[in-house]
Amino acid sequence: METLETKPLKGKVAVVAGSTRGAGRAIAVMLGAAGATVYCTGRSVRGQKSDINRPETIEDTADMVTERGGVGIPVKCDHTVEAQVKALFERVSEEQNGQLDILVNDVWGGEHLTHWNVPFWEQFLSDGLLMQERAVTSHLMTSYYGVPLMVQQGSGLVIEITDGSTYRYRGNLYYSLAKISGIHLAEAMAAELSPYNVTALSVTPGFLRSEQMLAHFGVSEDNWQDAVAKDPHFIESETPYLIGQAVAALAADPKVSEKSGRALTSWDLSDEYGFSDIDGRKPHWGNYAKKHGLPLP
Asked: Is 241 a catalytic residue?
């Protein structure tokens, strides 16, 4: 029997922008497991892949949400196209009577645009600017059209998914600018939304064992540890479902507003809320980085 305890987000409405795969998919699924209705958006649909050319689709994600006990609704949306973003939230408003409780900005699409170990002036400027369009402009545009629903109802939670919880340089100028922008978007939105009882914050995963990362190393989730031979730090990697649980825990926390404006991490939230990764492990990238002398996340 469903209870408020087992389905703490039952009756809540969420939009997870960029939920085709990786962290976005896991976040959508875990919100669904907590009972939420989740609009799963992205560019990859059955029969029409995006330029990333991966097999995952938003329909698959929506099915996973429903299978876990939520209501998954796939909506094709390119979050860099204003008309499509506007139409998305008009649809949410119409179908949910103006209700929107959780908005997760996870759009990325910058894997093939990042050129490591190359000075920014020697890279293709077009790649660097496209990364900002996908990872910054899309987030801002999505919040621009989604947040008014929250302001109108006097409550809501906006979460920026990024890489890292500090303003440190991340090894590539364009990548750093995109990821740090997510942290500041949350901080700035929190300041402007505080009078309206709407919370904004950012969350980072650790070394994310996403579908694309597994493919990069030529392994699967079943034998992922074989990739440690190529990158020893992969031993502390986490599945996307660690941050998925983190977001679901935040969304269900009645005191989440106390975290507004902060940059949070999957591993610290795992400690705070008491959940483990779906493989039973408790990866903690923060402790691992300190132990091995790596830059703090």
From this structure: no
Closest-CA residue to 243 (of 82, 2, 67, 28): 28
- By percentage, how much of the chain surpasses pLDDT 70? 98
Give the integer Cα–Cα distance in Å for 202 and 264: 6
Give CA–CA dist 75/96, Å, rounded. 14
Interatomic CA distance for residues 79 and 144, integer angstroms: 11
Joined tokens for residue 175: 């990548």
Instruction: Name, in order, each residue with C-beta under 8 angstroms of 147's C-beta and a sequence gap of 6 or more.
Output: 103, 156, 158, 189, 193, 198
pLDDT in tens, 76-118: 999 999 999 999 999 999 999 999 999 999 999 998 999 999 9
Q: Token pair of 99, please?
A: 């209700």
Q: Which of 174, 175, 241, 288 is the catalytic position? A: 175
Q: Report the alpha-carbon distance of residue 267 to residue 246 in Å, rounded.
A: 9
Question: CA 182 to CA 190: how far, in whole Å?
Answer: 12
Cα distance between residue 288 and residue 279, in whole Å: 18
Q: Which amino acid is it at 287?
A: N
Q: Is the pLDDT of residue 3 over 80?
A: no
Q: How far is Cα of residue 158 from the mean position of the Cα atoms in its chain? A: 11
State the residue for tokens 């390119």: 78
